[in-house]
Amino acid sequence: MNHLRLRLQLVHPRRLPLARPIYFHTYAPRYNIAQKYGEKLKQRAQETGAKDVDELRERVRRELEAEKARQRTEEPTPGSNQSVKNAPQGNNPPALALKARKDSSPIKPLDTILNVSKLLLSSPPLTSTQLGALWTAYHARKEGVLCAVVPLDMYGQLLDRARQYNQFVVPLPRGAKSAEAGEQAEGGTEIFFIEWTVHHSPILPNPNVDELGLPIFPPTENPIPKGSNPPILTLLFTPLQEYKHRQSFAAPHLAVTLYTDLATTHGVVLLRGEITPAQSGDGRWLLGQEEAQALVVAMQKFYLPGIGEGAKEREELLKCFYERPKEFKWERLLELSDIGIKL
């Protein structure tokens, strides 16, 4: 079975909230577009025949609304894999501009992590391999983040399973060595409750809109991609005992987001996970970096079982947890969840 390659570093506590997962209720700093880009806006208004900047803004707004309406009519029905299967798998996607969401979505937009619009307008355009290398290199400079580049066909399988079985449990051996302190943690096994949420499908990039959201003049010859991106997934890992006591108020120890903004154009999904710091604020973490990676690998064993040894048994146990909970065997979960950490 093939596992995702993850890269982990520790994150400074100030980068993360103390109670809730980092992807919720975040925002990007606001700035005055007219003040910063006033001359460029006036020039673009003249080039497009608009009498002033206000008329230009209104034109852009109408065009974006029309594009959103078009994509809504083409979006596949829930449960359909059309958007995943029809996306190109090649390494040479077109250079397209991508706008960050400006609605009330709880997902931290990918464009607030990377300058995606500028990135996609590079010449020559980035290949899937180059995009993956950039994603990994970006997180190598960040502390406390784990990341991966997920092939689109693998993401399609994961999305299907997450929709069908949006909750499960995985064990975590509490015996990994701390990468920072070099000390052995206490032994034992802790059960983590995992919960998937399926979110919106990101809007496809528009080749005729630049990074400011203004129409490119003259228009490019790049066609607007057809179809739609698959939905974004988020995954929370919370200790089972804490979840039982606090339910929705329980603090996840690890929050993972799988970004599909570039799925149609590049054929890959970008995974990003962040560890929650302890509320003491003294630089301690609710999980060690090896433990966080182990949780993601344990999830894969059941949601991407493959065809190797124990694959059918893991698939059946996942199904049993959801459909026949009284028959679920905790001993069997431990047997099938070897994640390679010695106690």
TrEMBL record:
One of its GO terms (cellular component) is mitochondrion. Residues 66-97 are annotated as: Disordered. Residues 66-75 have a biased composition (Basic and acidic residues). GO terms for biological process: mitochondrial proton-transporting ATP synthase complex assembly. It comes from the Eukaryota. Residues 78-92 have a biased composition (Polar residues). It is found in: Mitochondrion. It holds the Pfam family ATP11. Keywords: Mitochondrion, Transit peptide. Its main location: mitochondrion. InterPro entries: ATP11. Belongs to the ATP11 family. This is Protein ATP11, mitochondrial. It comes from Rhizoctonia solani. The lineage of its organism: Eukaryota, Fungi, Dikarya, Basidiomycota, Agaricomycotina.
